[in-house]
Amino acid sequence: MKTITMHTRHTTYQMGIMEHGFLLHLYYGPRAEGSAENLLSYNDRGFSGNPYEVKEKREISMDYLPQEYSCYGNGDFRSPAFRMKDENGVFAADLRYLSSKRYEGKYMIPGLPAVYADTEEAYTVEVLLRDKATGVEVTLRYGVLPELDVITRSTEVWNNGKKKVYLDKVFSASLDFLTGDFDLLHFYGRHAMERNIERVPVSHGGLGFGSRRGASSHQHNPFVILAEKETTEKYGGCWGMSFLYSGNFWFEAEKDQFEQTRMQMGILPEMFEYPLAPGERFYSPEVAMAYTDEGLAKLSHIYHELIRRHVCRGKFRDIRRPVLINNWEATYFDFTGSQILDIARQAAELGVEMFVLDDGWFGKRDNEDAGLGDWAANEKKIGMSLSALSEKIHDMGMKFGLWIEPEMVNEDSELFRKHPDWAFRIPGRMPVMGRNQLTLDFSRKEVVDHIFEQISGNLEKARIEYIKMDMNRSINDVYTAVNGCQNFGEIMHRYVLGVYDFLERLTTRFPDLLVEGCCGGGGRFDAGMLYYTPQIWCSDDTDAIERIYIQNGTSFGYPISAVGSHVSAVPNHQTGRTVSLHTRAVVAMSGSFGYELDLNTLTEKEKEEVRGQIWAYKENWELLHEGRYYRLTDLCAHPDAAAWSFVSRDREEMLLNIVNINVHANAPVSYIRCMGLLPEKMYKVQETGKMFSGAALMTVGFPVPVVMGEYNAWQYHFICV
Known about the structure:
By secondary structure, the protein is α+β, with helices and mostly antiparallel strands. It folds into three domains: 2-310, Beta-galactosidase, Chain A, domain 5, CATH 2.70.98.60; 324-626, TIM Barrel, CATH 3.20.20; 630-720, Golgi alpha-mannosidase II (Immunoglobulin-like). Helix content is 19%, strand content 31%. The longest helix is centred in the C-terminal third of the chain and has 19 residues, at 491-509. It starts with a strand and ends with a strand.
């Protein structure tokens, strides 16, 4: 059997080509030499069909052999990665191997985000498959980053035949495991409580989840981990898949009749039907895969480094982002220019570096019912032009930023009155409303062009260094008014391409602009969006205690540098909980730090505390951004305390964060076992002067102070001596 093998520093990925061109998956795991062909076992399986060419060899069946890229129509009755129908509506495909090649450098994908790398940092493997009956050719692309232990996957479909076909399912990645008993770790949630971790066994049948909301969603995140049963933070085998896509997606894990497991990810097949005329091509979004046998913390570190260095781009990829203040929870829609300047003036005095004007600055935007689509400043409300306001903010020594929601429109807007057909609405039906707004049809270039020029006009007239790009509803009523469009199953994908086009143009035209992603908080927190926005507002839930859980789940697949996190007002506007200013800051520092309150309402003592928090964040920024992040407590099993740390690359420095969540009378002392330190070294706590050995901190742990009251927090800085 001819094999195609890809090595990274610690892993090996291998596929094999059988006679007649059947492409099998052989191995993905710890680095190994030679062929894994002998791992296969051939057996005559009842009711598992056999390819016509093998004749009497009934032990050859695609229904149980591990497939590299499974398709419906070749006798594999497991969930396929690829399904298409011809112009007669017949579902069938039989993809056979044609050729393969390898070249230096990492492939990119037209119109879509993708992992990037210098030529010497990566290589690409392409495998060409063909469906003989239709002439459709499928290119499987693998981007290999050896030093990171990452392999990416994407699929290109080319109709090289003479008749139109319809793509019904084009997953980007599929992995077949010959054996193993696995758990699936996925990250579910809801608006204002995103990315809660859930670990469930992979049992017989299919386990699937995803989004049909038009965005990757608050409910399910497009990042998953398949783990061996014994896998913990510190040891055990685990495989990750991160989908670089911000629209509808689907993940499946299936254990079959022979105890084999298949995991795969791609665009949601539901409501997806993509036509390909002869000569046309379709590119699937990318999945970034990683494997380690060193546990969940190591897998997280792989993805953190991948996203920091090979997904995020632009000026702000590696530099510290400004400490900002956002006026939303201070004023909501009800503000004047003088109120904004009062908040900004106090913020500047305390060391805040940027003021962000949130929703309500444009059109007739005094509430949620009007204004979206009309991106001209409401100078009557602000009391001056946007340019004048920006200059006043800059005169205080701060940068200036704006909130926008470019994909949405209110019926009460000049844009809607002029172009009602630009919004998603199905003729003859009343639309489903969300936040009293409709979704603009970003699958249409003229719509994207118009919104882009409006937003660009504001950026050119005023000194604006930051944009918070929001999206505040799920998408219904998918219909385009484009003449002649009969294939509405392609619209949602084209919509996402329109969003990416908008962002690509925005960041290209304004390279010094920091863009923060937002979708009602964390509804589009995915690696695809991070390709355009180096940070994302993590959640609309700003409660410090709930943020611990949200940020903990987020950390499995995404670096802290990507997390937008603020100190908010108390009692918290989402929960009514009151937490100390110190605790709120400790939690918010595990992200791109800022404030979301009126600092004028603080006492002088609290204001001085804010000055200290900003200083501490700046002082520790490199450790927070570049350090390895460790989850030190299991919030599901032990919810009384939360602890996490940042450890420098040389392992000689650690920032330990602890928050007491529940307190008990006469309680035993809790010890936090640290990770990632040098066992033979001694570490000094800067705040107390106490000394600990690295071995003791990792074996016994650091004792948590016993104090009265809930929600106390501590932040300790350890330096190797």
